[in-house]
Amino acid sequence: LRLRRDCGPDGPSGQTEAARLARVLRARHRGVAGPVTVVVEHSADLDDPRGAYWGEVEAAAALALADLPLRLLCFFPADLPGPVAEVVRRAHPFVLDDGRPVPTGVDTDPRRLLDGLGAPVPAELGAPAREFRFDATQLRDVRRAVDEALRGQGFTDSRAEDVTVAVNEVATNAVHHGTHTARLMLWTPEQDVVCEVHDGGRLADPLPGLTPPDPGHAHGRGIWIARQLCDLLHVWGDDAGTHVRIRAAA
After folding, report:
1. What is the pLDDT of residue 5?
2. In whole angstroms, how far apart are CA 185 and each of 18, 90, 93, 195, 240?
3. CA–CA dist 227, 231 (Å, integer)
4. Separation CA 43–CA 63 (nearest Å)
5. What is the pLDDT of residue 4?
6. DSSP code of 12?
7. How far apart are CA 46 and CA 50, in angstroms?
8. What is the pLDDT of residue 234?
């Protein structure tokens, strides 16, 4: 199974790659009896000095694929940069020794992989076409602004509805679980629409919405739904709070 990698103008997003991989594998596994082995090969082009991108990839994939009967076999060169090698070592419960799996004995909790690293920040986009602050009483204004931007870029009715739902889920989370007020920024490059939602709250889960929601729970599925509807959904945090970027193509 070969996945086409296209980082686009936002830069690489391990979150988006993992969510996309999970969608493809779920669709493929429906017609396959028994477990599936997925072979992964390291790409040095995406290394960074801190190992943050690979930390995000490993953590996001562990969460997004946890409900699938998969075995991941990951190949890495022996001369990995030190920080990347450390992330890789912490991410895998086994290493191959003469073809046999040997336990590493490390704590492979996916969310702890990003401790001290944080999720990589996407590329800056310049001044937005539109920007405003909102609270829970102004979510209708958020939906209207997003819908207008989408239709102005030639999105079909159904596609515009999907993306508006995705942004609304993120915006609702920001004002209900963040700091009660948030900021929406909109860009309209070519045939895309990019939305960012910023709030001053601290993110308890550094990689939300990658695990399929429990069907028995009425809440906790907004970000997961948004990830399924958009071409990119990237979450990161810093001293200013929590930030979510959504990109959708017409």
Report:
1. 55
2. 25, 36, 41, 6, 16
3. 8
4. 21
5. 53
6. -
7. 12
8. 94
Task: Determine the pLDDT at residue 7.
Answer: 65
Asked whether the beta carbons of 215 and 160 are under 8 A apart, the reply is no
Token couple for 171: 């915006």
Q: Is 145 helix (H, G, I), strand (E, B) or coil?
A: helix
Q: Residue 244's CB: how many other CB atoms inside 10 A? A: 26
Q: What is the CATH number of domain 130-249?
A: 3.30.565.10
Report the distance separating Cα 218 and Cα 108, nearest Å.
29
Cα separation, 91 vs 76, in Å, equals 12
The Cα–Cα gap between 234 and 54 comes to 15
Q: How far is CA 26 from CA 20, 34, 160, 249, in A?
A: 10, 13, 25, 23
The domain locations on the chain are 8-114, 130-249
Write out the two tokens for 102. 């040997």
Tell me how crowded residue 87 is: count the other CB atoms within 10 A of its CB: 25
Low-confidence ranges of the chain (pLDDT < 50): none
Where does residue 206 fall: left (phi above 0), alpha (psi -120 to 50 degrees), or beta otherwise?
Answer: alpha
- Rounded Cα distance between 198 and 154, Å, is 26
